[in-house]
Amino acid sequence: MCLYVRDRKPLIAKRDIVVLKYLRQEGKIHKKYKSPCQGMLVTLGKLMIAQPNTPNIIYANKDIFNRDIYSIGGGVIHAKLNESNYYGNYCAKAIIPKGTEYWIDPFGTEIAARQMLITKEEGSNESVDTQLFKEILESAPEKNGIRVGDYQMIDDSFVHPTKRIAKTKVRGIVCGFYEDESPIICALETFAGIWGSSDSKIGEHTSVKKAMKLFNGREVTAQYKRQINDNDKWRYDAYDAFKICVNYRKEKNENWYFGSLGEIMTMLNNAMYLNAAHNITNLGFIININDLYWSCSEIDFCYSFGCCLNKFNIICGFYHKAHIYKIVPFYHMI
After folding, report:
1. 2, 101, 166, 331: which has the fewest C-beta neighbours closer than 10 Å?
2. Of 219, 208, 193, whose CA–CA distance to 300 is shortest?
């Protein structure tokens, strides 16, 4: 199993860092624990030191934004930074000792270190060290005093995740910035749904290269509002994703819209900071590898664009509108 990173240079643990180590548990009475990928026997309560002595770090590829990516294929021990359904059937609390070299993947979901103590305690999100997430947020993109990962309040102010937050007064989270440096704000919830019926059309049909540069979710959603009315029920029911976004927090009289491919890609590209904010406050959602998100950008009447995280990259593709994927509403500041 490889860990993909944007920087081959290791970080150094400033203190003991608590993480989650997933294992395969075998047997009910005489329990044995093995690493989920290589099947190596693991003794709980014992410090594991990675072999070989030097991590095997090689150039892997460029990501969708033309950044160099490296893979670490050996010499480290892998762990998770949040609970996951994709790994072993037992989650142990693990500790990366102070002074240890470690690396984090581009999306803030996985970590690997030169050594790790696998404790006898079960692990959960509550056990992970929040100080690590605070350190991650220190490098979050910032414009005009607002950082990715900051929460927008219902009074239009912005609060950093490390500050005291009145959770009932949070509207959304900053997931990126537009060209004019105004914040892109996404909801704290995701929804599962289809894009719409196979013959539905709202925006212009386009190619993936053009769609990746589109930040026009507000305009396309405004077009949906003009095109659809409650008296035309068949057409209204043809656009599930638009309905979900427009009706999000409708009782608050707020302007939510269905994000374009460029907006969704920006959110996924900043997954490390959004995941860190969630792990501190428990507000919002974790962006996991392989979760696919719909965008409002269309290729034709039957297909629309969506994207997901995969290993080190953001993968964009077109998918039949009748498939069920994740939908995230975005907010427009007037």
Report:
1. 166
2. 208
Q: Which two three-digit tokens encode residue 120?
A: 């006898």
By the 8 A CB rule, do 279 and 242 touch? no
Q: Are 118 and 48 in contact (CB under 8 A)?
A: yes
Interaxial angle between packed helices 271-281 and 130-137, expressed in degrees from 0 to 180 and rounded to the nearest 10: 140
Q: Which residues of 140-176 are buried (b: 16+ CB within 10 A; e: fewer)?
A: beeeeebbbbbbbeeeeebbbbbeebeeeebbbbbbb
Tokens representing residue 79 in the block: 């762990």
Tell me the CA distances in angstroms from 158 to 145, 147, 232, 248, 333, one per residue in order.
9, 9, 39, 20, 12
Output the CA–CA distances (angstroms, integers) from residue 209 to 122, 291, 316, 328, in the order listed.
45, 21, 10, 22
C-alpha to C-alpha distance for 270 and 127, rounded to whole angstroms: 24
Strands 170-177 and 101-104: unpaired
C-alpha span between 177 and 121 (Å, rounded): 41
pTM of the model: 0.92
Contacts of 195 (CB under 8 A, 6+ apart): 239, 240, 241, 294, 304, 319, 321, 322, 323, 325
Q: Is the peptide bond before 106 cis (omega within 30 degrees of 0)?
A: no
pLDDT of residue 86: 62
- Convert the pLDDT of each residue in 236-257 to its tens digit: 567 999 999 999 999 998 999 9
Q: Using an 8 Å Cβ cutoff, are 260 and 292 in contact?
A: no
Residues 6+ positions from 289 with CB-CB distance below 8 Å: 86, 107, 109, 308, 309, 310, 311
Q: What is the pLDDT of residues 81-119, one digit of tens each?
A: 988 766 778 889 999 999 999 999 999 999 999 999 999
Put the strands of the sheet holding 293-298 in their side by side order: 191-194, 324-327, 293-298, 303-310, 313-320
Residue 85 burial (10 A CB sphere; 0-12, 13-18, 19+):
exposed
